[in-house]
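Suppose a colleague, Dr. K., hands you the sequence of a protein chain of 333 amino acids and asks what its three-dimensional shape might be. Before reaching for any lab equipment, you can write down a predicted structure in token form. Begin with the sequence itself:
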Amino acid sequence: MTMLSTSLFFSLLLVVLLKECKSSRLGSYNVDVDKVSISGISSGAGFATQMHVIHSASFIGVGVVAGVPYGCAHGSSIAALACMKIPMFESVSSMEHLTVSEASKGNIDAVSNMKNDRVYVFAGRADTQINPQNGHNIASFYNNFVSSSNVKSVFNMDAQHCMPTDNYGGPCNKLSSNFINNCGYNAAYDLLNWIYGNLTKPTANTILSGQLLTFDQSEFTENSTSAYSMDNTGYVYIPSGCSHNTSKCKLHIALHGCKMGRHYIDDVYVKHTGYNEVGELNNIIILYPQAVPNSKNADGCWDMYGFTGSDYATNKGLQVMAMDKMRKKVLGQ
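The predicted structure, expressed as tokens, is then:
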């Protein structure tokens, strides 16, 4: 084989491999449809609340870390900022009325679906990005729809704006560039254990025997990820106990915050927030959708104030529809 033909061969091989990598699709697994939950940090927390409220018939629980309540932004970036910084002026009752109204219009699921759900709310006392009073507002909001005994609040930690872990990140009370802090507290385990109950807790010796896979998100965005402000690539962790579809597994969707997606910090959020270890030990598939910046979303946040359109907080919202399609794909629906 000549040097030219060899070069051509490897060039064609590279094209084929890249094409296969780009076209990798999210798989379907043996998942109990009654064991699906969602959580997030920062804008991911705000969006997790939206997804939970909008599709409450599909989720059994939600974890909200440094977030804001449903409807807090009123479809405006200015209002969203006010909600984040001065939540004491926000009316939780107005958010509750909005939720009931949207349900009556068919824009979200019936609020009665939330009655028995499990809700976890974390707000760090040292948070300078989202006023921790929002945690109290979130808990108050959910207490109107969920049994109060099903709402767990963690408001006693001097944590900055971060996803708290027990083994990775910067100092707990300092603002870190990747917003992941070592607080000696495994928030991923605590919230998942609250939602599902009786989970095995990871240790420093926990081995990840499953697979961390990437998948093509354009399958869920009508091939227009930029309009959705979503990355072409998402991640999913498949525990070893779920890989052969012989066991009934659970599904949890974990959402990064602003400037925490693959575009900014590669796979750091996906690998170091503690979700995978909990998933591995308890047969929970962890889905990591990825957002990216665009002209209307400079920091790669999830849409909790309307940059994708006025339907952002309803079942017609672009990111809401994309994420729900992902959920259905994993469930094989």
